[in-house]
Amino acid sequence: MPSSAMPAARVRARRTARATTRRTAACAASAALLLAGLTACGEGAQAGDDGGPVKVGLITKTDTNPFFVKMKEGAKKSAEKHDVELSTAAGKFDGDNEGQVTAVENMVAAGVDGIMITPNDSEAIVPALEQARDKGVLVLALDSPTEPKTATDALYATDNHKAGELIGEYAKARMKGKKAKIAMLDLAPGVAVGTLRHDGFLKGYGIKDSDPSVVCSQHTQGDRSKGQTAMENCLQKAPDINVVYTINEPVALGAYKALKSKGRAEDTLIVSVDGGCTGVEAVKSGKIAATSQQYPLVMAEQGVEAVVQHVEKDTDLKGYYDTGVNLITDDAVQGQAAKDSTFGLDRCWG
């Protein structure tokens, strides 16, 4: 895991800010004891200060999506390994920026050394993250970058643009020169991961948004039922759709259901991104032709390790750390590297 040494003055500044924040949190937590005259909390207090357990917070988009459940599992595993005090929070729904802002504020008040976050809104979350960093908290983005990327210290994520490219290249090869009628079932406006996958698919296929082969575009919020509705809308607009790009596998399965109800499932190529166990099972059964598999457990494991290294060795983390991606399909095309569903099921999100 690459890192670079911080300038000495900056190291001291961040350590001082972090220690001050943790002392403040300890003071607030022991207010009742202070009133009783049983303890004191001042410059010499050691509650959570240097030498105490490293404190890490994980904030995911939601706590119900299996992707983020696996991410939380990775954080817990790494926290136990490194004797880290882990706190977790999540938005109430995909897109809940307000809930994530509150979580950031609560974790800073509790004296965390580092926060890992999968931002629900890549831009709107930035002021809260900047305030956390001003108080000496290391902030790492997982899975999705902020806008601008410099709003966090580092990003641990799949190369989502590459993930999109892989399935775009695959779909292009599978069409074998046949005229494509493409439906784009996207995430939501303002979410970087959705934009990256969308743009990557188009690049892999060798087209632009304005290309006439893109006959329908819909936002789905990554939800299966909304994916089904979006596909139904697209089929009303263009009944001869033969390629479907989906932001994730729940949306892909929703699209498959809509296509099947119209007798079009066998004639339409569906490609997706994520590589969860359910998604890979859909590849194995033929509902999804291919998916790009990413590894959220690895993102969280490496994120916790990064905070520990930062606190214990005074190192700074900068830039992007690629946590890997593989194309998963049981119908590989010549010239493109791929793994089969057996590999995918063995590695699904692990």
Secondary structure: elements and pairs:
Elements: E1 4-5, H1 8-29, H2 31-36, E2 55-60, H3 66-81, E3 85-90, H4 97-109, E4 114-117, H5 126-134, E5 138-142, E6 154-157, H6 160-175, E7 182-186, H7 192-205, E8 214-219, H8 224-237, E9 243-246, H9 249-261, E10 269-274, H10 277-285, E11 290-293, H11 296-313, E12 315-316, E13 319-322, E14 326-328, H12 341-347
Parallel strand pairs: 2-3, 2-4, 4-5, 5-6, 6-13, 7-8, 7-9, 9-10, 10-11
Antiparallel strand pairs: 1-12, 11-14
Overview of this protein structure:
There is one protein chain. The protein is α/β, with parallel strands linked by helices and 350 residues long. The chain folds into two domains: 4-155 and 296-317, Rossmann fold; 160-293 and 327-347, Response regulator (Rossmann fold), CATH 3.40.50.2300. The protein is 45% helix and 17% strand. It has twelve helices and 14 strands. It has helices at residues 8-29, 31-36, 66-81, 97-109, 126-134, 160-175, 192-205, 224-237, 249-261, 277-285, 296-313, 341-347, and strands spanning 4-5, 55-60, 85-90, 114-117, 138-142, 154-157, 182-186, 214-219, 243-246, 269-274, 290-293, 315-316, 319-322, 326-328. The protein has a six-stranded parallel beta sheet, with helices on both faces. A six-stranded mixed beta sheet has the order 8-7-9-10-11-14, sandwiched between helices. A two-stranded antiparallel ribbon has the order 1-12. It is elongated and about 65 Å long. Mean pLDDT is 88; it is low at 1-12 and 25-49.
